[in-house]
Design a protein that fits this description.
Number of helices: 8
Structural class: alpha/beta
Strand content: 15-25%
Distance between the termini: 35 Å
Number of strands: 9
Shape: globular
Radius of gyration: 18 Å
Length: 261
Amino acid sequence: MASSDKKRLMFSVIIPAYNYADELDRSIKSALSQSGDDFEILIIDDGSTDETAQVLYSYHRKFPKKIKYFLQKNQGPAVARNKGAELSIGDYLFFLDADDEMAPNLLGELRKKISTKKPVDVIIGDHIAISHGGKSTYSTTKVLPETREKCFKAYIFKKLNLSHCAKVVNRRVFEKISYPAELRISEDIPFMAKLLATCECILVNIPMAVVHKHRDSLRHNTVYAKEFGESVADHIFSSNVLPDWVSKYEKSFRARRCLSI
């Protein structure tokens, strides 16, 4: 985690980027347009081979105090997100995909929500999905189930309409939970499952992210799906941070994953 002698901020926006030079403007501008001076933007370049580095160097030169750029060899988005969490100095971490956007005035809305509540582990919100054809759909979850077990079960069996980008995470969470570094796709599923099963999560009905859907996303890559599909279950149910009641859902979840693949 970040060194304790650094000045702490309220928010860190963490953007993993791999060969998204044509899309990065959108995500970076959505972060720069947020109000306040209590946040930083960390962009982790996961060994891109396109013009990503040039785009990021340009932004870093223009906004050296706001934007921090780090380059790593290609290891996947999970490693990039974990690295961003390690290098960040914000109390709350917002993970934004390189081709998506932060909702307008998100940080302003979160400041109000956080100031009226005791510190929590995870704040989950709504999101706007944009299809590859340009159709916009507002997605919301009105209420979270009343127990962690019910939240976990609803999420893994797709009864909760939650987006990976529509949440902020208290940095203390990373003392016990991180993204599974071995996964190249669907790394958000074990991470979210562990959050819901072990952390104090609250729901706020405000838009947090604009998520752009793509036909060519890694999640739809058949080769990756076959290679990592079963590993998603491994990373959920072999975790030593989860309570014992999780095991009762393993057989059903693995069956659903096999059918999905």
